[in-house]
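ok here's Cysteine desulfurase, seq below lol
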Amino acid sequence: MLSPADIDRIRNDFPILDREVGGARLVYLDSGATAQKPHQVIDAIDEFYQRRNAAVHRGAHQLAVDATDAFEAGREAVAAFVGAAADEVCWTKNATEALNVVALGMAHASAGLGGAEAQRFRLGPGDSIVVTEMEHHANLIPWQQAAALTGAQLRWLPLSDDGQLDLSELDTIVDETTKVLAFTHVSNVLGTINPVDRLVDRARAVGAYTVLDACQSVPHLPVDLHDLRVDFAAFSGHKMLGPTGIGALYGRSELLDALPPVITGGSMITTVDMESAAFMPAPQRFEAGTQPIAEIVGLHAAVDYLSYYGMEELAAHEAQTASRLIDGIAQIPAIRRIGPPADEASIAAVSFDVDGVHAHDVGQVLDSRGIAVRVGHHCAQPLHRRYGLTATTRASASVFTTEADCDAFLAALAEVRPFFGLS
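and the structure came out like this:
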C-alpha cells in the first residue's frame, strides 16, 4: 500500500497542483475528464521537440531514425502496459476516434469494402448490435451510426436501480443475431466496474465481437487485454497522466488486419494507382498521415510513471479514496449519490445530485473554494435519464489525490445547500 509519504512524493511531481484558485489551494477532482500531468511527461515532450523532432518512417537522416525509434518504443511500452502485443496497438487521436474506427470499419465492410477477409464484420437487417445504458456517448453514437448505415438493430443492456448493469435478460438481449457487444469496462459516471468475463462469455457463446471502452479502467486498474479476452478496446492518453491528442485502438491482430480502415491517405498503403490502393497490415493501416509523435513520447513517459509505482498499489490507493468520498457524501443530508452500493468495487468517480441545487451551481460554489469537479451529463445522457436526472456533479480522483483533498471537498460540499439558504 502506498504510504502518505508516497502520495506526497507523487503530488510533488505535478506542477499544476501548486496553483491556487480563488485564494485557496487547488483540489483537483476532475481526473475522470482529464488527468493532470507529472513533470516527467512534460519534460519528455519538451526533450523530444528539442532533440529528436522529425517525421517518422519517412526519412533516412538521423533525426528521422531517432523519432521513429521513440515512436515505436512508445507503442511497445503502451502495449505491454495493457497486456497486448505491439502490433495490436494502433494510434488514434483519442478513444472516440478508436471506437469510430471499429464501428465505421464494420459499416465499410458491410458495404463491401475490404474484400473477403472483411466479410466477417458484415452487418445487416436481421443482425443486432448490443450496447449498455451506461455508455459514454463515444461508445453509443458510433454504434447508432453503424446500425443506421447497415440496417442492423441496436439493443442495450439496461441499468439497475443500484448503478449496475441489469443482466437478468442478458441471454435474451445478446442472442444468436448479435454481431457486436460494445460495453464500458468502468462507468465514467457511476464508477461501476463491469463483469467483463460474464459479458465476454456470452458474446463468445453467440459468436459476437466484443468492443471494450477502457478509458476509465486503464488509468485506475491493472488491465490485461489478453486476459480480458476482448476483441477490440479503446483508451485515451490524457486520462492516464499523458497528453491530450493521443489515444489507442487495441484489436486482436487477425481482426485488425481484416478490418477496413476509415481514415485513409499517406503512410498506410503498399501500392496506389489512379483507381485503387492496397493497405498495409495493422497497425500502420490505421495510422494515415502525420502522427502525434511527441504525444506518444509523452504517453510512454506516463506509462513508465504509472508502472514505477505499480497499478496494483495505485488501484488500492484509489479504492481507499473512493471509500472516503462515498462514505463522506453519505453523511451530508439531502445529497443523492448515483452508483453502486458502497461495498461494491468501484473506481473513485462519484456522481451525485444535491437536492434543490443545480449541478452547475454546485460546481461554482466548490470552484470558489478551489475545488475542481465536473458538472453536467458527463457525455452520458441516457444514463442520467434512467435515474430521472439531467445533470450531476462528479468528483473523480487520481494517483495524486490525498485524504486532505477529500476532506476539503466534503467540507465544501456540506456548505452548498446552506449557501443557497436551504436546510
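fwiw The mean pLDDT is 97. kinda neat tbh
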